[in-house]
Amino acid sequence: MQYTVGMNTTYVIITAVLGFIGFWIADKITRMKKKDEPITCPIGYDCDSVVRGPYSKFFGVPVVEVGRYYYLIVASFFIINTFVPFPQDLIFGAILVTGLAMMFSLYLTSIQLFVIKKWCSWCLMSALINVLLFSIAFIGYSTGTIGFLFDHQDLLKWIFVAATLVGTLVTTLHSFIFVKFLKDFHISKLEFKRLGMYSHTAWVAIGFTFLSGVGIALTDTYREVTGNSEFLVMAIIIGVLVVYELVQNTHIAPRLINLHFGEHPKMDDHEHSYQRKLSFSLVAVGLISWYLLMLFTHLSWFRYDPLFLVGLYSAVVIAAVLLSLSVEHTIYRKSLLSKKKKKTKKKK
């Protein structure tokens, strides 16, 4: 097993400073939350709404709590490695963690931009710190990291395949519960929690799919992967899945679900009907994208032109959307009819 001593002194100092600043920010927010104090932003944004909102937890765990330990551990890890040689596997694991943390920060930033539509300057500072931590760690250990990736190409491929399978499974389960909800206009608290868990797991799967895919591309000296016809369409599909998760599971689905925890709205309302149709369409896009990504991963398509595969993917997605709209129309009418019958029985 190879052992590696840390980065040069300048990188270590920068990493340590960034880590402790990140720890200070996370610790400050945590203490204010525990004291139930308003969380004010230094630049005048709405930190309180963001930090105390529904997206302040991931898998039920407060994000700032995880951040405190993360920054402290990362800073300590790279400082200690300056004096104590660590196994290369452990160092690669640390770089992978910083990469996942960076992607998670980008996810939270996109939530602020597209979903909450409010900014938290503390959160933006943390996101910047995470980007810098990953960049410095990758650059500081670049020689060893690339060498490690070359030595573990098979592992990267297994991670990519496993992440694709997990993403396909949890999206299937998520879609099953959500379509069931759209069918009977009812969702339990347990189902609501499961939807959140499945969505978070899908984000983790996308993260591992992306990072392992980047690792495979970086070590693809002979273009065995990047030179294949399916590489372009697989990259497009991963991008589509990111957009799907952002739009469907963080914007449209919560709005529809929240409508049904209280009194039911008018089911023939135009806005409600539009949101349902859009949601059904996006569920179809998400499902088809995951299954096609898995198909492109396991089968060879070298005989086909990349643009043909992109066109094929687009055609299948369009067909799935049209089918989903047809199914939604049928289910919607049956649900309305069933609801009217129940009202008639109650009046009698």
Describe the structure.
It is a single chain. The chain is mainly α. It folds into two domains: 3-150, de novo design (two linked rop proteins) (Up-down Bundle), CATH 1.20.1440.130; 153-347, no CATH class. Helices cover 78% and strands 2% of the residues. The protein is built from eleven helices and four strands. It has helices at 9-34, 47-51, 63-80, 88-116, 121-140, 142-151, 153-184, 189-218, 230-259, 270-298, 306-347; strands at residues 3-4, 57-58, 61-62, 86-87. A two-stranded antiparallel ribbon has the order 1-4. Helix 9 (230-259) runs parallel beside helix 11 (306-347). The longest helix has 42 residues, at 306-347. The protein is flat and about 75 Å long.
Secondary-structure map with pairings?
Layout (H helix, E strand, L loop, with lengths): L2 E2 L4 H26 L12 H5 L5 E2 L2 E2 H18 L5 E2 H29 L4 H20 L1 H10 L1 H32 L4 H30 L11 H30 L10 H29 L7 H42 L1
Antiparallel strand pairs: 1-4, 2-3
Helix pairs in contact: 1-3, 1-5, 4-5, 4-9, 7-8, 7-10, 8-9, 9-10, 9-11, 10-11
Per DSSP, the total helix count is 11
First-last Cα distance = 79 Å
Order of helices and strands: EHHEEHEHHHHHHHH
**Globular, elongated, flat, extended or rod-shaped: what is the shape?**
flat
In which order are the strands of the major sheet placed?
1-4
Q: Overall pLDDT, averaged? A: 81
Structural class: mainly alpha
Radius of gyration: 23 Å
Low-confidence stretches: none
Profile the largest sheet: 2 strands, antiparallel
Number of strands: 4
Count of discrete structural domains: 2
Q: Roughly how much helix do the residues carry, as a percent range? A: over 70%
Percent in strands:
under 5%
